Each structure stands twice: as structure tokens, then as C-alpha cells.
Amino acid sequence: MVKVVLENLTKKFGNQLVVDQVNLEIQDKEFLVLLGPSGCGKTTTLNMIAGLEPVTSGNIYFDENLMNDIPAEKRDVAMVFQSYALYPTMKVFDNIAFPLVLRKMSRNDITTQVNMAAEMLRIKNLLPKKPYELSGGERQRVALARAVVRHPKVFLLDEPLSNIDAKLRVYMRAELIRLQKELKTTMIFVTHDQVEAMSMADRIAVMEGGKLVQVSDPLTIFDHPVDQFVAGFLGTPPMNFIDCTYQKKGEESYLQLPTVKLKIDAETAKIIEEQTKGQELIIGSRPQDIKVSQEKASDEDFEIEIYAVEPLGAETVIDICYVACGLVFKASMAGRFKAKIGDMMWASLDKGRIHIFDKSTHKTLV
Amino acid sequence: MVKIRRVIIYILAIIVGIWSIIPIYWFVNLSLMTEQEVATVPVHFWPHQPTLANYLRMLGFNATAAVGNQIVSFAASGYAPAIRLGLINSAIVATCITAITLAIAVPTGYAFGRYKFRGKNGLLFTLLMSRSLPAICIVLPFYILFQSLALLGTLQGLIIIYTSITIPLMTWILMGYFATLPIEVERAARVDGASRLSALRRVVIPMAAAGIGTVGVLTFLISWNEFLYAWIMNAGTPAQTLPPVFPAMLFQIIDNTGLAAATIISLIPVIIIALLFGRYITRLKIVDPVMATGG
């Protein structure tokens, strides 16, 4: 039950900068997800919080206490690893009991605590078995029980759902959320899967190249990404990007796409003019905000050729090729959509929901 | 084409297998025959009148055996005291060496395998170099040194020399082995509250049982079989181990069947140790930490 504060946290391996000046405050009882692609520094950050990696510079605080020099075994954090890291020579019961044995708890107390943890994770029947006898999902629950049994200050989870099959993953997501709320403990969860992040986090901290890019609750990050990277990383299918130029004719402002002009309102035009010197911009539009139809509905529709159709049952993802420039992007339509590869149709973007990025800095303008 | 390759490989394997087994088989054969039977022509490939007389003789008992139609009695061999003494001394030496070597090589191998520290490369180099001198080059200096230290003809002297052979070698082997163990399990132990030493004792060493068992058997074998130092330092003394007994049997009073029996006797403790420790090595399915942790 603790607040974790990272202050200018930096980590170098030799000359390689892996974590770059990360400043982050994780509230007590919060479920925070560290999200980012492979190699962005999120696991290293987690290891530094756990005390497994020494800090190159910067500070880590648990509440008001500076933790930099305190070794891992004294930090009272519990960690669940991607590979679960169960002790292969011990039975499940002893695996879960291990942290308590180290604290020299009495045999009776240990048995009580282990049974409680096993009950919570629904693995009581597995207690006499050894790790090699268990399936992936069962091993993961043992790893969780081992973490839970200690009532630690902070839970750290390093991509714990990566090694289990898709169906179990969906089930475990809900279980983890429920567990965290029940335990009322701060939880820091590392993943590269944005679906996991969106569905589980109180707040998401997006990292890339060692830097913290954006920290906010999931819906804010989804609706208001701070730059093109975040915009493209969250949401599935991912956001589509089209180059365009900004033009002004008298009172009216336009975004010029390869074949059509999109009229934009004065407010948006003003922001664009203030924020950027160049005319080169990028439009981002989520697949859900693109409509495909057989007839041209307005002058702002552009012609496309059906490249592929992915019928997913509840929705249909259509890969469309913007004829004029050869760019292929994805549109998502609810329900069923009849189309054949090669059909010529028209696509329109929902102007109210497009994002506009500066082409050179990739930062969001609108 | 593949099938022919398979057949050739099988044939080669069988040949190599037979090549290794034949000497041992032959000695078992000899050891179960009397001198008289050995002398018969044509050569007997298996004992026609098998007897344990040679084993009994070598261990110091009088024995009888059937030769042709008669019963012949054999006196206990003059080598028997040396063999009994050799068995005890070799056992003491090999056990001590195994214990000392494991006690030192396991933590050292772990440290070298897992951690970076100042002087690591220098130390490693020294470790390797100590093994690069052939034993025969340094026997003489050791002899002179031990003479002045009054360590000649003692078990302690042998133990000192053998550990200087086994510790570097076993540290090297274990270093490589520990590096293959999944580091996340050690990290989990630390996060759970174990100090580095505690994690080593409670988690890493049990995981490394296969490697440590192998190293133990190897060490025992090396100590048990060591001949050069045993012969030069301790031959003829009360601290004589088993290997030096055999040249005497070949070159002094010739006793072929006795030699065969003595050889097989000297193999038996090794086989027992291999069976005992071998359990840990073959338990890979249970103890193999890489597979068991799903990493």
C-alpha cells in the first residue's frame, strides 16, 4: 500500500541509454500499466523498481523513503515474471510458502497463509504438485499466489500474460483486475499489448526509446494521443495515416489529400497556423471512423479499391487501397459488409474524429 | 541415402561400444579363471570353470577352485595387504577430495558464472593456466617441496595435490553450467526476500543438482584413478593408494589372474558412486530448470 515515485530515473548499460529521465508518480492502490514496444525500457524500469538492477542516476521513492540503495530482498515488493520463475525443485505449496519461510514464520501460520492464497487463486488442488506438471495458466496462478501470499507494498508484473493462449489471456485479464481491486495494492504492470493496457489500467504510461511519452487514463490516451507514435500504438486495428498539405484560400482552409480537399473550420485552422511553420501535415483516422460505401456521398469522399475483406463476425475490417496514391489502410464497419476484392468504392473520413499531426515533429496538433 | 548413413552410424557406434567394453570384459573373464585355465590353448573366451578364488586371494583369504578334475587350493596373495590398504586409502582420499572440491568449486563457479567483478578475467586466466602444465613436469618440484614439508608418503599430501587439479577444472565446468540456469528464478528468490547466499543455498544449488552430481562423480573418478603422484609420492608407504599396486603386479611378481581380479575390485567402488550420483544426473526431466519454469 504505497505510492511509488520515479524521479529522473535513468539507466545506462555501458554506453547504451536504456531508460532516459523517466519521471512518474504512481498513486497508492493504482493499477498502472507501462506500455511500449519491445526494447523501450519498460522491463528495465520495472527491474529498477524491484531492486534487481542498480540505478544509473535518478531516484526511486516508496512513499517518502529513498529506495536506491536498498537491496531487492528488503524492498517488500512482489514480482511476477514473464516466465513465472517458479522454483522447479519445490512443490507448489513450497513455492508459495518460500517467501514466508524466509521470514521465519511458524509452520502453522505458513500453512494458513498458503491455503488462503491458493484459495484466492483457485489452485488448492495443485498444492502437492511440482511446476513441471502444470500447464501455463496454472503456473501463472502459482506465481501470482506466491506474490499475493506476502501482502507486499507493491506488485510488479512483467508481461505475465504473454506466454498463455489467447482464450486464457482474456479470462486472466478480468481475474487480474478483480484481484488488484480485492487486494487494494499498488500494481505496476508491464506489457507491449495495448489491448491488455486499455482493458486493465487505471492509467497507462506509454514508453518509447527509454522515454516516457504520455501518461494518462486509457480513454484519454485513445482520444487525445500526444503524438503519432502513441496514436498508432493504441487501438486495433491501428490508426491510418495519410500525408496531406494545409492550404488557405481567402477565408477558407483546407487539407489537401491526393484527390480531395477536406474543409476545416477556423478554430482548427488557427491551431495549425500557430503550431507549425510548414504546410506538410499528416492526417490520422481510426478504422472505426472511416466509412466505405458504394455511392459517393459528398465531394470529400475519395475513390478506393477493395484490397481485402476480413469478416470478423461482429464487425468487418476492410483493407482499402486509395487509388490515387496506392496507400492501403484499414476501415472497420460494424456488422457485415458485402464487397469483393477489386470492387471500386468510395471512402469518407469522419472529420470530427480525425487527428492532425505535424509531419516533421510527429506531434499532435489537433 | 539417409538410411545408409543411419546404418553406418549404428555400426560405428557398436564398434566403439565393443572397443570400450572388450578390455573390461576380458579382465572379468580372466579374473574368473585359474592360472591353469588361462594357460590352456586354445584361449577360453569365457571361463569354463568360473571361480571367485582370485577375488578372495586378492583380498587376503585362502581359496580353492576346481581345475580340471581336481580341487586346487590357493594361498592368499602377497599383494592382499597392499590392496586392502589401497582400497581404504583411495576411498579416504577420493571422498575428501570430492567434498573439498565441491565445497569450493560450487560457490566459486557460481560467482564466476553469474557476476562481473574486478579482476575476474585475471583470476580466470590463472585458473586455466594452472591446468596447462602437464603433471609430469611439476612432479619433481612437488617431490622436493613435499620432502622438505614432510608431506611425502601422507594422505594429506595427496589431497593437496589432487585438489589443485580438480578445483580449477570443476570451477570451470560449473561456471559454464551455472550460466545456463535461468536467472529469473534467482531473481524471484531475491525479490521474495532471499539474500544472495540464501538464494544460492535454497534455490540455485537444488536446481543445479544435475551439474553438481556430474562434477562430483568426475572428481571422485579423477582422484580414484590418479596414478602418477600416487606412485611417486606414496608408493611403498602406509599412505599408498590403490593405483600404484598394479605396476607391481605386472613387473614384480607376475600374477595375471590376480591382476584382473584386483582391477575389477578397484572398479567396484567407482561403479557404486556412479550409481548413487548418477540418479541426480539422469533426473534431468524433473530437475531440468529451463524446461520446468516455462521460460
Structure description:
The complex is a heterodimer of chains A (366) and B (295). Chain A folds into two domains: 4-233, Rossmann fold (3-Layer(aba) Sandwich); 240-358, Nucleic acid-binding proteins (OB fold (Dihydrolipoamide Acetyltransferase, E2P), Beta Barrel), CATH 2.40.50.140. The longest helix of chain A is centred in the middle third of the chain and has 18 residues, at 166-183. In chain A, helix 2 runs parallel beside helix 4 and helix 3 (107-120) packs across helix 4. Chain A is of the alpha+beta class and 366 residues long. In chain A, a hairpin with a 2-residue loop joins strand 11 (240-249) and strand 12 (252-256). The radius of gyration of chain A is 25 Å and the shape is elongated. In chain A, 26% of the residues lie in helices and 34% in strands. In chain A, the strands form four sheets. Chain A has a six-stranded mixed sheet, with helices on both faces. A five-stranded antiparallel sheet of chain A has the order 13-12-11-14-20. A five-stranded antiparallel sheet of chain A has the order 15-19-16-17-18, with no helix packed on it. Chain A has helices at residues 42-50, 92-102, 107-120, 136-148, 166-183, 194-200, 218-223, 228-233, 266-275, and strands at 4-13, 16-26, 31-35, 57-62, 65-66, 77-80, 154-158, 186-191, 203-208, 211-216, 240-249, 252-256, 261-264, 280-285, 290-293, 302-311, 315-322, 327-334, 344-349, 355-358. The mean pLDDT of chain A is 87. Mean pLDDT of chain B is 85; it is low at 284-295. Chain B folds into two domains: 2-74, no CATH class; 80-292, MetI-like (MetI-like fold, Orthogonal Bundle), CATH 1.10.3720. The longest helix of chain B has 35 residues, at 80-114. Chain B is mainly alpha-helical. In chain B, strands 1-2 form a two-stranded antiparallel sheet. Chain A binds chain B through residues 50-52, 71-75, 77-79, 81-90, 98-99, 102-103, 130-132, 136, 139, 146, 150, 163, and chain B through 182, 184-185, 187-195, 198, 202-203, 206-207, 209, 285-289, 291-295.
